[in-house]
Structures are given as structure tokens and as C-alpha cells.
Amino acid sequence: MRLLGDRSLRFVVENIAEPAHYRALVNMARRYPRPLDAYRRYLLGRGSYPTRVAVRTPSGVVRPILWSFHDMLTLNEIFCREDYAVPTPPPLVVDLGSNIGLSALYFLTRGPEVRCRLYEPVARNLERLRRNLEGFEERYVVEPVAVADFDGEAQFRLDPFGRYGALNQPGDEIAT
Fold it and tell me: pTM score, two decimals?
């Protein structure tokens, strides 16, 4: 049985008591100027994509472009569940596998002193990352590569939604 944004019943039951999820639900009302749309997208998996979703941050409202329901999951994990929260903004963030730039956007909006060093091997994600980080170009550097514990070249594979990738592993799509 699938529910709540195509999550399995088992997943919902296993995670229902997690305090972080309740914090995220409360924060959604605070962080999203249009919380009902965000709840619909996040909890029910409803809505068309691509779309811009406005988010309140310490630096003001940002409007990243999301290309799928899976991007909405990531946005919520970062900005509402606060998976990357730190007591003070770090001066430098190194992000291995920057995807479409949502984690970098989170850190860059913590304060004007934050800088990011980003690594993302997927050309499609690089284009999307740059769009989502418009206005922050002076504060980040992006390298179009994967990071591994070896030198050389390897195949990089993606899951069907582009959210997860891996070097030299079975996957659905070879990234270019």
C-alpha cells in the first residue's frame, strides 16, 4: 500500500514517531509563504513540476526551482527538518554531490560570510544548481566532477529521479 507522496505504509509507520518529522511540519508553516501548497506537495506528492517554491531564510525569501517531487523532499529535509542545522554559520561548506544546489542555498542564506565549495558531476544538475544559486555567484565555486578515493575516470550512475548517484555501482542511468 502506498500513501503520503507514494511512501510505503511500512515507511510511514516506522517514521511516525520521529520528532524531526513533527518539527518539519511545524517549520513548514513558518518557512513557506504558501504552506498549504508545500504540505500538498510534500505530504501528498501532488503538484506539477518544474516549479518555484518560496522559502523564508535568514537572508530573505528565496525561490529555488524544483524539478520533481523528490526535490521537494530534499527541500523540506534541509530547510524544515533542518538536517544541516549548525549553531553558527560555517565560514566554508564543502558539498560533495551538490545536486541542484539546495544544500548550498541553505548555507549561503545563513549569512553573508558563508562560502561554498561544490562538487557535482551531472551536467543537468550543474545547470539547475547554477539557476538555484543565482545571486550568490561570488560566494561559491563549483567543480563539475565526482569525488572519490581514487584518481581517474569511472562511470557515474543515477537513480531514476536524479536524487542519488554513485561511482562504479549498478544504476538506472549513466550520467553525462
Answer: 0.85
